[in-house]
Write a structure and sequence with these properties.
The chain is of the alpha/beta class. It contains 13 helices and nine strands. It folds into two domains: 134 residues, Aspartate/ornithine carbamoyltransferase (Rossmann fold, 3-Layer(aba) Sandwich); 157 residues, Rossmann fold (3-Layer(aba) Sandwich). Helix 7 links the parallel strand 5 and strand 6. The protein is globular, with a radius of gyration of 19 Å. The structure holds phosphoric acid mono(formamide)ester and norvaline. Norvaline binds next to helix 7.
């Protein structure tokens, strides 16, 4: 059984296959239309979602499967019922679960007790399905990541962690600029360093957004305040004040650099309106790629059984 919880569980070959499979699905969706016929996919979301929910919901339907959506209010993991009871119950009804959770441990616990594949639709620690779509977007618009400088500017959060994992496995030059106290997890960085020696990747952590943005092919940012961190808003707004992709920062990047954001965006915080609306911004192409990566992940996890 294959879960999709963390990119570090996948080999370089598996990630590259998921990317090429996503591109094949994008090119010829009809070829895949009945691949999951008769399967049921549960979408168990503790937090709001526009892109991830839509990508996995529509993606399931386009592959011939039937999605079943559960909101936080219906399930109330650990309040109405334990995670292990939910997981074992759903295993008897469904063929796969896509879950968005506050705590990463919840996803791990769901997977531990599940006899069907569990797909991570975002936790507080990782956002691997997002990063798969990001990789497709970069490959499509800029080519091989090994030849690029990609700058992530902002919070060392779930998206940042999955980017670090992906780059360290695939090889590539990723500069991560965060305020010191919001740098990515030490474990993620240590594991990535181990991969880097094999893949030739360069993961550079820094606090200067100018240094990160200088001559970059790709600028990437995400919310200063992720879901579940709302109580930290005041402190974060202060700490991240300078960590904004604006016209000045965009000018430091290479001519024709692309600007990425997983969305939802907070204009005037991590990105300015003028940058997100500029010709460099590829945020909607990036969001669209969520559909193809979601379908490739569904096929990877549910396609064999
Ligand atoms: N990028 C992303 O995961 O968007 P949603 O939170 O809307 O799913
Ligand atoms: N880091 C953000 C990503 C949203 C898709 C969050 O966790 O809220």
């Amino acid at each position: 059984m294959k879960h999709f919880i963390s990119l570090k569980d996948l080999s370089k070959k598996e990630i590259l296959t998921l990317i090429s499979e996503s591109c094949a699905i994008k090119k010829n969706p009809l070829k895949f239309k009945n691949k999951l016929k008769g399967k049921y996919v549960g979408l168990l979301f503790e937090k709001p979602s526009l892109r991830t929910k839509t990508a996995f919901y529509i993606g399931s339907l386009q592959l011939g499967a039937s999605p079943v959506y559960y909101s936080h209010h219906e399930i109330k993991l650990e309040k109405r019922e334990t995670i292990s009871d939910v997981s074992r119950t759903l295993s008897n009804f469904l063929d796969g679960i896509v879950s968005r959770t506050f705590s990463h441990n919840t996803i791990l616990e769901l997977a531990k007790f599940s006899s069907i594949p569990v797909i991570n639709g975002l936790s507080d620690f990782l956002h691997p399905s997002q990063v798969l779509a990001d990789l497709i977007t970069i490959y499509e618009l800029k080519g091989d990541i090994k030849k690029l400088k990609v700058a992530y500017i902002g919070d060392g959060n779930n998206v940042c962690h999955s980017l670090i994992q992906a780059f360290s496995i695939l090889g590539g030059n990723l500069c991560v600029a965060t305020p010191k106290e919001y740098s990515p997890s030490r474990n993620i960085v240590m594991e990535a360093k181990n991969h880097c020696s094999k893949s030739g990747a360069k993961i550079n952590l820094m606090t200067s957004i100018q240094e990160a943005a200088m001559d970059a092919d790709v600028l990437y940012t995400d919310a200063w305040v992720s879901m579940g961190r709302e109580k930290e808003r005041q402190g974060r707004k202060k700490a991240f004040k300078e960590f904004q992709i604006n016209d000045k920062i965009l000018k430091l990047a290479k001519k024709g650099a692309i600007v990425m954001h997983c969305l939802p965006a907070h204009r005037g915080e991590e990105i300015t309106d003028s940058v997100i609306e500029s010709k460099n911004s590829v945020v909607f192409a990036q969001a669209q790629n969520r559909l193809y990566s979601a379908k490739a992940i569904l096929l990877y996890c549910l396609g064999q059984n």
